[in-house]
Design brief:
single chain; mainly beta; Protocatechuate 3,4-Dioxygenase, subunit A; five-stranded antiparallel β-sheet; five-stranded mixed β-sheet; 18 strands; about 10% helix; about 25% strand; globular; binds fe (ii) ion
């Protein structure tokens, strides 16, 4: 089977080309994996399309997307001080409604810190009341397994809501962020052990999911992580999309794979230059692993100049043409994945 990896290896000539989304491969895998299965409990659960739930007001605006947006919310940049709270792992897969993994899906997580404060509660600067060591927001780009993984802290409680995590999923070719929320299967209690006013039974957002199977699919047991003594918890949650990836046209929304070239950077260190065809109003983000084979998709900050500071990880072009950007991080196999979004896509709807 022809893979993206072989495309990359043999098609080095052009500086960038589109990622084929392999819908045929998805269909093929349905034929090979679903035969012989009765509808197991797992599969039946997986086929419950994850309900769309309000994004809420605290998704960071594009101008506030933090430089540190990796999948570890506990550690902010290179800080040695961890966020306050119970370390919590959330992982799972992004699937289409047939149960096949979706690769290249951008999974975003944001939620309140242990004290119930959102990092971007003001929708402007970082909320000064929020834990200064908590990232508050993270991203993960899925590989071929569709898998995602975050390390964070147990979300704090705030007035009017039961405990919850906010998720956003943007799948290839779709312009809109699919937003949903994940809940704890627990009776939430405050720091004094008092049962929180708003429970899963009366939370307006959770009870607003009228389909009972869908509602049940977003309430998960968070269990102790085996072998740890610090109370760490984990939960597994597959996000089943009601949308199907489509092969994007450019301009549209999706990704490019672009070769990087080593150039001399500041202080004698190398930098890696990539050149993109850009369109006015489109936003560009860079990842350093284009193989789709690894879970280690890392968003990479960059500079618009060869020796200037690495000061951004998203850039919205102001004119059509060719754009040079510079990274400190070398790319896996020499290629970067550049995701792009249409004007006004994913800017948040508070
Ligand atoms: Fe919230």
């Amino acid at each position: 089977m022809k893979t993206n990896e072989s495309s990359i290896a043999t098609d080095v000539g052009p500086k960038c080309f589109y990622i084929p989304m392999g819908r045929r491969r998805f269909l093929h895998s349905i034929a090979t994996t679903s035969s012989g299965f009765a509808l197991s409990g797992y599969l039946a659960e997986a086929l419950t399309v994850t309900p769309q739930v309000t994004q809420g007001p605290y998704y960071p605006l594009a101008k506030n997307i933090p430089l540190d947006k990796d999948n570890d919310l506990v550690q902010l940049n290179d800080s040695l001080t961890a966020a306050t709270g119970i370390v919590t792992y959330v992982s799972g897969r992004v699937l289409n409604s047939s149960g096949d993994p979706i690769r290249g899906a951008l999974v975003e997580l944001w939620h309140a810190d242990a004290g119930g404060n959102y990092t971007y509660a003001t929708n402007a600067a970082r909320n000064p009341a929020a834990d200064p060591n908590f990232a508050g927001f993270g991203q993960f780009l899925t590989g071929s397994s569709g898998g995602y993984r975050f390390r964070t802290v147990k979300a704090g409680l705030y007035r009017g809501r039961t405990r919850h995590l906010h998720f956003g999923v943007t799948i290839p070719g779709q312009l809109k962020r699919y937003t949903t929320q994940l809940f704890w299967n627990e009776v939430a209690k405050d720091a004094n052990g008092t049962v929180w006013d708003t429970t899963n039974a009366n939370d307006m957002v959770l009870t607003g999911i009228t389909n009972s199977a869908q509602r049940a699919s977003v309430v998960k047991d968070f269990t102790a992580v085996a072998g740890t003594t610090t109370g760490e918890q984990e939960a597994s949650w597959d996000i089943v999309m009601g949308l199907t990836p489509i092969e994007p046209n450019y301009p549209g929304s999706g990704g490019l794979v672009v070769a990087g070239r080593a150039v001399s950077g500041p202080n004698g260190n190398p930098r890696y230059k990539i050149t993109l065809p850009v369109y006015s109003g489109y936003s560009y983000e860079v990842y350093s692993n284009p193989t789709f084979a690894s879970l280690a998709w890392s968003a990479r900050p960059f500079s618009l100049s060869q020796t200037g500071s690495i000061d951004r990880n998203i850039y919205t072009a102001t004119a059509e043409g060719s754009l040079d950007i510079y990274l400190d991080a070398a790319a896996v196999k020499g290629f970067y994945y550049v995701s792009f979004r249409e004007p006004n896509a994913n800017v948040g709807t508070p």
